[in-house]
Design brief:
The structure is a homotetramer of 404-residue chains. The first copy, chain A, contains 13 helices and 14 strands. By secondary structure, chain A is an alpha/beta fold. In chain A, strand 13 and strand 14 form a beta hairpin. Chains in contact: A-B, A-C, A-D, B-C, B-D, C-D. The interface between A and D is medium-sized, with 27 and 27 residues. Chains A, B, C, D: Pathway: Amino-acid biosynthesis; L-arginine biosynthesis; L-arginine from L-ornithine and carbamoyl phosphate: step 2/3. Chains A, B, C, D: Belongs to the argininosuccinate synthase family. Type 1 subfamily. Chains A, B, C, D: InterPro entries: Arginosuc_syn_C, Arginosuc_syn_N, Arginosuc_synth, Arginosuc_synth_CS, Arginosuc_synth_type_1_subfam, AS_cat/multimer_dom_body, Rossmann-like_a/b/a_fold. Chains A, B, C, D: It is found in: Cytoplasm.
Amino acid sequence: MKKIKKVVLAYSGGLDTSVIAKWLEDTYECEVVTFTADLGQGEEVEPARAKAEALGIKEIYIDDLREEFVRDFVFPMFRANTIYEGEYLLGTSIARPLISKRLIEIANETGADAISHGATGKGNDQVRFELGAYALKPGVQVIAPWREWDLNSREKLLAYCDEHGIEVERKKGKSPYSMDANLLHISYEGGILEDPWAEAEEDMWRWSVSPEAAPDVATYLNLTYRKGDIVAIDGEDMSPAQVLTYLNNVGGENGIGRLDIVENRYVGMKSRGCYETPGGTIMLRAHRAIESITLDREVAHLKDELMPKYAKLIYNGYWWSPEREMLQKMIDESQEPVNGEVRLKLYKGNVTVVGRRSEDSLFDESIATFEDDAGAYNQADAEGFIKLNALRLRIAANKGRKLD
Amino acid sequence: MKKIKKVVLAYSGGLDTSVIAKWLEDTYECEVVTFTADLGQGEEVEPARAKAEALGIKEIYIDDLREEFVRDFVFPMFRANTIYEGEYLLGTSIARPLISKRLIEIANETGADAISHGATGKGNDQVRFELGAYALKPGVQVIAPWREWDLNSREKLLAYCDEHGIEVERKKGKSPYSMDANLLHISYEGGILEDPWAEAEEDMWRWSVSPEAAPDVATYLNLTYRKGDIVAIDGEDMSPAQVLTYLNNVGGENGIGRLDIVENRYVGMKSRGCYETPGGTIMLRAHRAIESITLDREVAHLKDELMPKYAKLIYNGYWWSPEREMLQKMIDESQEPVNGEVRLKLYKGNVTVVGRRSEDSLFDESIATFEDDAGAYNQADAEGFIKLNALRLRIAANKGRKLD
Amino acid sequence: MKKIKKVVLAYSGGLDTSVIAKWLEDTYECEVVTFTADLGQGEEVEPARAKAEALGIKEIYIDDLREEFVRDFVFPMFRANTIYEGEYLLGTSIARPLISKRLIEIANETGADAISHGATGKGNDQVRFELGAYALKPGVQVIAPWREWDLNSREKLLAYCDEHGIEVERKKGKSPYSMDANLLHISYEGGILEDPWAEAEEDMWRWSVSPEAAPDVATYLNLTYRKGDIVAIDGEDMSPAQVLTYLNNVGGENGIGRLDIVENRYVGMKSRGCYETPGGTIMLRAHRAIESITLDREVAHLKDELMPKYAKLIYNGYWWSPEREMLQKMIDESQEPVNGEVRLKLYKGNVTVVGRRSEDSLFDESIATFEDDAGAYNQADAEGFIKLNALRLRIAANKGRKLD
Amino acid sequence: MKKIKKVVLAYSGGLDTSVIAKWLEDTYECEVVTFTADLGQGEEVEPARAKAEALGIKEIYIDDLREEFVRDFVFPMFRANTIYEGEYLLGTSIARPLISKRLIEIANETGADAISHGATGKGNDQVRFELGAYALKPGVQVIAPWREWDLNSREKLLAYCDEHGIEVERKKGKSPYSMDANLLHISYEGGILEDPWAEAEEDMWRWSVSPEAAPDVATYLNLTYRKGDIVAIDGEDMSPAQVLTYLNNVGGENGIGRLDIVENRYVGMKSRGCYETPGGTIMLRAHRAIESITLDREVAHLKDELMPKYAKLIYNGYWWSPEREMLQKMIDESQEPVNGEVRLKLYKGNVTVVGRRSEDSLFDESIATFEDDAGAYNQADAEGFIKLNALRLRIAANKGRKLD
């Protein structure tokens, strides 16, 4: 067994990580530092302090990371119009590298030689936490209790609490789902969702009303972009976290951002997940709209061709890698002219772009018009354009090459 | 000027192509063959016969191509989950290669040495028509009147009719939009849409009700897939065109498939377009859902990485090219196991996947479960997996390499 | 410890795998089946029979797989112009999937529940063997002794032989390199090569003379291609293995095919390797030459863009995967017209293409000529071609967009 | 006809561009400014002044652009390991954007409203010149006399000279090839090369001796890299143009850098070209070698996957485009750690890397070693790594999915 002196634990204050805190002390005879972050999950983080103290923890870190999360992780990702497997907005994936970063910073501050987390051995999150940790502090030890211990059920965890005098709330009617939340989304896995044919139940969803329950009148929004990021809504300047909070609220009220998919995990299995991403769903659509008038065609296409790779890097846990940073450099470079306004209509689950304008627009009405363009575009050029683009095809056909 | 003996004209029966028919005869002193296709645009094609006869046309082709269109063009394209620039479902693009093919077949049957069409010199359609024609008959002459004549307004066209005794309906309240329709979609360009900031007017849309006007109760659908194509709806076998017709109807009734975008044309300009693609919008979502349980992860990712290129080929007019066929071969190969059922909920503009199942499913509940998996998956394997994936990152960090 | 009944061992007859055979019996108390393949490594395989018998093995498989190796693995790979990291011709990588396939076939024939191999825990070969085995027989057990035992030096292996009465040749002057050979190449790792600054010594190389020692007169070769594969040399029909054997001989005599690189292993480390691939080096160059006149430009470019991914799949051990097969389908499709002849000059390490011709050539002298082309190509078309390709750049510049 | 006031002509001083200068004045009744650049083509540029003066030109620009050419164009391109269609080092392509840039700068300085060049209507160079010009000055007029006039043979050009009193040297034994040279390469097209089966004649080649004629003793070189560029040779600091000049000399003496290919032009035809690129051939190999020890694996692979696209951009003339700049940003970012030394052996056409070292090396001997690594690498990790990478393949096989 690894020799550990001090370990920094990603601590939520809930049952699992409370057991882990105790189990780490007992199993490794080491000091435990807890780290609890407010990433916008919608629960108070301050109560975690008392719980950690009750467990006898001496070094307790509680951080509000919401602005950093949106500014340095969510926004850069949305500059790439990132979607994993055509559907998933990467709400869980994008929060992990920030947690890894803080775990390692705290390890460095407190002289810890290990980190620990409550992710299971089947999921993507263990990979994301640990790849980030190793990339930032290559000699760190990682303890993943779920891969080591035999406390593999809620009953065993509760028994462990009884045995070790850990006080936990024993809620009745605990959610049957495994959930994760941060300012970008909330996710649901497990329970009846393990059958991909079963429809998710209405009372599972927590952040959004159903389209049916949303208002009967549409809401219009004006988003202002600077270098690819939203900096104001309806004319009011907002910080990154304020933007996302606002969009989550208005999106959730309008029934926007529910998703139900089967995805391919990095560890090799398929899993069913449901997600609510109200603000992110709005941002993706709106960002494409502002890009549609400000980006050069080939720049946009290059971004589109690289997007699946970029999404996969984030999904798989390679935020902290030189290849992600290399791609990010290129993406950020492309966003210089992505300035302007997008007007949106939100209505019962629908996000519709109804207008976009920009001082950096490349849309040229004088050329695009169906009316007389006063010679701005010479239609005769099209003949040569087509002829030379067809040349290789014509030569091939002349030589007897057949198309199916 | 080119010497032309006989020309096959893509003829709609409307003002523009009626003028073109006459203009071709006069300008090139050649015979004109008309070709009118039913691609599901929703207008009768038979009336075109009388109009062509009135123009003195002797060889008149009127074809119902709806099944061929969906079976050989729309369905193969949807196997690739094709979207251009993140939004556009390629409704116009995918119809052009079929028209090119028939124009050339008719040219071969009638001994014509030229083809002609009514597309302007600014758009993509001229490129699509002509690339297809050249690829299939490399020596064909192409006449694109809009690039040659000076009849560049509706007024001049009407004056030409008067002068040459062409009878046309002079509708009052003609639509201010340039429109194109086929079984996959209807498109709108021009008019107030030339200002990308202006919201499209509700009375522009023809195929779908607005989400606001859609029923207050959701509609559920069951789609059955075989090799990536829909072969039955709610248990009833349907032909490809029947499938798309059905989905257009139910989609349109539920306010599904409206799109408002600025896109990048192949000829180099940006243009604003609005589209209604009710059935296609449903098909895209459902196809991803059936693939999500039946495709291998890496196959799915490879498809996703190549999709933008495939979409660009179709958008730019390279359906009839060896590179498109090469990609299609690969895509079709991937669809062998894409069999099963998808259950959808349609409600006021929303298409939600609520279930998917397949005898070819790769979803393995015994492995994915949050419950005890009886050893199907060894969580300890994850440690080695992560450690080796992290190795290059750790070596780099150990050597002093910094991440930003 | 796993319970094993019978194990099929990839057996070379050398020290390591002889020890493994004995160690498997002792450790797992299981039957051992040996499998020895002639892949063109240049050593007799028949002697392995007597050695296996001396170890008490009852089921002994010795196969000549040279034709299958070249026909079904080497040739398909060369259709893709495969190179890993710009340099490596994948000589080791491409032999592994065939060995995996035979191990599993033999396991099925003999009722074995496990396979074993002599690859170390640091290299790529373990990955290639095992991924193939798992893909072909998902329930198979894999025993990789080098990852389990503590016999981690030649001395310990020899001591084990003494202890267990295993007779092995104790060659003096054993090569200081770790080597692997098959009909495509021979490789060298370890020894002084572990210092990437150290030049490989001349006496390391076994298959080729140095360019300095090669003949002073060039050798000319004529290769005939059918569907991308070489089917005749200098007019003489040859089987795949004959082709490669012939090219190895003539290439090696002319000092062709040495390579000295640092490569990135799948397991995460960099390693230095030297390779001799005389025939493969010739084939790569010649295949590009025959493709240069027979492939459509966009087909060729698509192949080039996908090649690095295809090479990585093979390097990493994913020959037996649906994504490799999907790519192969596309590549093979592209090779239909790759027929004709290539003329090469071999001289002291250089492979020079001096001519290529084909009845499927797309080279059109009448168009390409600098002389008068009698109107085959209309130079005026170029203006429109350039103007429209420049349009987006001009619009951007007109709008004030700056290039660096 | 376009109205032109003043035109800047890319002027070599030879027959063609001398005729063009006169023809422009006569045809467009405009002033002509000549621009002659020393790009290292190996001919004096100063004589062009007297020739231009003799033609009555008043504004004459003669620039030595060698350093700028190598520093800002050749070196950035080699950072990407650029090769077009697997063979071509883009020697012609990379010089064009610099000429475009200077033409436009001079047009701006002299108040010219047009540029002109001597490239034909069949080739790539017209595209490269003009795309660059339009991107940098969107309103510029471009005159391409070869696409306009009927002087389509040497005889007609000479007759034009006689008629207009233009003095030109009438060399006997003029080269039968169309040639282009700059510090990166010299190219040959036309003549007997128009038959792709015909071997190039030895006396065609001008910059390199044949491998047969090269010295019998190898030359060793030491190249020092900083951020991906060569900054010293054999310990001596050199400027970019000095580096390339030196490598051309030593490469040419050793028979290095000849190439004979059929390539696909952007205008749609295949053409046969021969090239001598002695220094570039050395640089490509050496750059890959220094990257092999300093680049992260995934960064290197990403570069390799994007390289064909980058090469195509340069070949097709899109140096001055936002997409090329976006890719360049990413490539340059990757080169920060590409520092160190490469040792090469040059011998009769062969460039062999014999050593590479760097303070930024990621090669970790302690991990890569075949000897005991003292626990630096845990071989047991490989099992989990393989097991999880195999998981999707095993699930598929368990579900009955077959591989071919």
